[in-house]
Design brief:
- The complex is a heterodimer of chains A (213) and B (257).
- Chain A is mostly helical and 213 residues long.
- Chain A has one domain (3-211): MetI-like fold.
- Chain A has eight helices and no strands.
- The relative contact order of chain A is 0.15.
- Chain B has one domain (30-251): Orthogonal Bundle (MetI-like fold), CATH 1.10.3720.10.
- In chain B, 72% of the residues lie in helices and 2% in strands.
- Chain B has helices spanning 24-28, 30-62, 67-81, 85-99, 104-110, 124-149, 153-161, 166-196, 208-219, 222-252; strands at residues 10-12, 20-22.
- A two-stranded antiparallel ribbon of chain B has the order 1-2.
- In chain B, helix 9 (208-219) runs antiparallel to helix 10.
- The radius of gyration of chain B is 23 Å and the shape is flat.
- In chain B, 37% of the residues are buried.
- Classes of the chains: A mainly alpha (213), B mainly alpha (257).
- The interface between A and B is large, with 38 and 42 residues.
Chain lengths: 213, 257
């Protein structure tokens, strides 16, 4: 591969990283809302959040992207392709992170909430200062694991025509007729990003497992 | 395949948008879509079987006494779990056939296939099955290994002390509790694998998403087609969840203590 082709791959990598970062951050914000709704004492809110999570966990990410990407213009929104894709991944991430954090919130011992209530803390301080700090710690390994899934998932943006790393790789492979080298490099680039995160997630998991023994 | 649209169901939304929903082409294409569902389920089933075989084989090799084998399985697991399924599909579909037989050794090193000679003949559907099996297999290795490790040595020793054969110990003391332990993670991995089959449309394997793309190409009713197909996937995954729960209740609901 020429240096120009490598640069093109790296510009694809840049979009993969940008998309992952935006999807993770905005997905985390909405995911927190989903998790709070899912654990809400209001049963209608909790049920709605449950359906939201089930729909996103029960359909392929690719279909979610297609529906959002082709559906948003029908609502009269004229959006940049990259914004539309980012919205799709945000919704996807919010459902998965919501479910992960739902589990973590429920894993915080009940006595903590009860003690906070006994100290006359209202809902918001109780959640913000007592439950969430503990829940986020518990959820950290799974959250890192999902981040890896999300980074790999951004490759599906290639199938709606968004030029991130995978689609950049496909262009270069078609142009140079050297798919073996190109796809190896593309895979390696994903691996270089994801592997350290996976190792970090596994280490956190071992640490927490040892601590809770 | 897809006949001319009959304009059966026309629903309009807000006048300012001016888009009229037309599910006619989707209804016309329903027989094809249902066949696509069968294709998806077939792919998923074949992928799950291959993933299970790779998972069990991988666990045996992973705990072998020969270090290079252990390293091979460990690198296979890490490599597959840290690269996207789409790139794996592209690699198997576009890159491997060019390798030819003289590079079979390299392929074996990557752990992608055991029989490099067949690679030149792979159809899109065969590629999809192999990619799904290899991808799911890497996850299955980790899951199954966790289950095997959850059985304490004392249990096995107690079984042997009671005069059971090694095979009996494996079947009665190791296998069933281990299956019970891994069942939730393995079945959710299988559901994920089923949803992942949609990515195989990128290499034109025969399944639901590819059928949807053909109908979309003929009718340009993009949103209607993909919305309907999304609901079909939701139905498939819900049915799978029901089935997995029923199996769990039938075989694994016994008291532990």
């Amino acid at each position: 591969m020429s240096s120009q082709e490598i640069l093109f791959l790296l510009s694809g990598l840049k979009w993969t990283l940008a998309l992952s970062a935006v999807a993770f951050v905005t997905g985390a914000i909405f995911g927190l809302l989903v998790a709070l709704a899912r654990t809400s004492p209001n049963r209608i809110v909790a049920k709605a959040a449950e359906y939201y999570i089930n729909v996103f966990q029960g359909t392929p990410l690719l279909m979610q992207l297609f529906v959002v990407y082709f559906g948003l213009p029908l609502l009269g929104l004229k959006l940049d392709a990259w914004i539309a894709v980012a919205i799709g991944f945000t919704l996807h991430a919010s459902a998965y992170l919501g479910e992960i954090w739902r589990g973590a919130i429920q894993a915080v011992p009940r006595g903590q909430t009860e003690a906070a209530s006994a100290l006359a803390l209202t809902y918001w301080p109780r959640i913000k200062d007592v439950v969430l700090p503990q829940a986020l710690r518990i959820s950290l390994p799974a959250t890192v694991g999902f981040l890896v899934q999300l980074i790999k998932g951004t490759s599906l943006a290639a199938l709606v025509g968004f030029t991130e790393l995978s689609l950049a790789g496909k262009f270069i492979a078609n142009q140079t007729f050297r798919p073996l080298v190109v796809y190896s490099v593309v895979g390696l680039l994903y691996f270089i990003i994801c592997w350290p995160l996976s190792l970090y997630g596994a280490r956190l998991e071992r640490k927490f497992a040892a601590a809770s023994r | 395949m897809v006949k001319s649209p009959k304009r059966a169901t026309v629903v309009s939304v807000g006048g300012n948008v001016g888009y009229k929903f037309d599910f006619g082409p989707v209804w016309d294409g329903m027989p094809d879509l249902l066949m696509g569902c069968l294709g998806t389920m077939g792919l998923a089933l074949a992928g799950m079987l291959l993933a299970t075989v790779i998972g069990i084989g991988g666990v045996i090799l992973r705990d072998s006494r020969f270090p290079p084998l252990r390293w091979l399985v460990m690198s296979f697991v890490e490599l597959i779990r840290n690269t996207p399924f789409l790139v794996q599909c592209y690699f198997i579909f576009f890159a491997l056939p060019l390798l030819g037989e003289q590079l079979g050794v390299l392929m074996f090193k990557f752990g992608l296939l055991a029989k490099p000679t067949n690679l030149l003949l792979l159809s899109p559907t065969a590629t999809a099955i192999i990619a799904l099996g290899v991808n799911g297999g890497a996850y299955a290795i980790e899951i199954i290994r966790g289950g095997v490790q959850s059985i304490s040595k004392g249990q096995v020793e107690a079984g042997l002390a009671l005069g059971l054969h090694r095979a009996q110990v494996f079947r009665l003391i190791v296998l069933k509790p281990a299956l019970r332990a891994i069942y939730p993670s393995l079945t959710s991995q299988f559901t994920l694998l089923t949803l992942t089959t949609s990515v195989a449309s990128a290499i034109a394997a025969y399944e639901l998403t590819s059928v949807a793309e053909i109908i979309n190409g003929n009718s340009f009713r993009t949103f209607e087609v993909y919305f309907t197909v999304t609901i079909m996937y939701l139905i498939i995954s819900s049915l799978m969840a029901l089935l997995f729960n029923a199996i769990s209740r039938r075989y694994f609901s016994y008291p532990v203590k």
